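Handout, section 3.2

Students often ask what a structure token actually looks like in practice. Rather than define it abstractly, here is a full record for Vesicle transport through interaction with t-SNAREs homolog 1A. The first block is the sequence as you would receive it.
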Amino acid sequence: MSSDFEGYEQDFAVLTAEITSKISRVPRLPPDEKKQMVANVEKQLEEARELLEQMDLEVREIPPQSRGMYSNRMRSYKQEMGKLETDFKRSRIAYSDEVRNELLGDDGNSSENQRAHLLDNTERLERSSRRLEAGYQIAVETEQIGQEMLENLSHDREKIQRARERLRETDANLGKSSRILTGMLRRIIQNRILLVILGIIVVITILTAITFFVKGH
């Protein structure tokens, strides 16, 4: 499991390094090359998001006791992804301003005002994105706590079941012992009754013998 995660990590590191390099080159490229570069960066950002999703799924499969370290790394990668998206938005805003200036012939002040307005909107979107990410992280941590509680309850249930099985075995052994003791007591009583009967027969035999002996004389 961890080897798959580390493989995704390496792919993510290589991909983000390429994206960072390309974003920094966007403002300096001619219009035609800029358009192609923007499309290329958008595609790679989508690939990076898919990698993050795969990594997130891998983290959820890791046992809770080992998950903390990977969760911290995921938070770092998501922050890095958010920074890349912010930088790309800014580069696209600059690119869009240049395209509008070429097509519409706007003056410099209008372009600067539009750019400031777009940057302000971008910052608002970033703040909203950070709040959503924080909410998502809380939900993930809550899910982890829930899973740990379920596992603990499962262990406790197994212990209770084992204790019940031991009690059943003990009851069965006690029942068997009780039956054995009852049988032994029954045999003892029977033996005593036989001894009493034999004693009575012996006494009667002796008395009879004495009676015949006395009559004979």
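Discussion prompt for tutorial groups: The chain has a mean pLDDT of 79. How would you have guessed this from the sequence alone?
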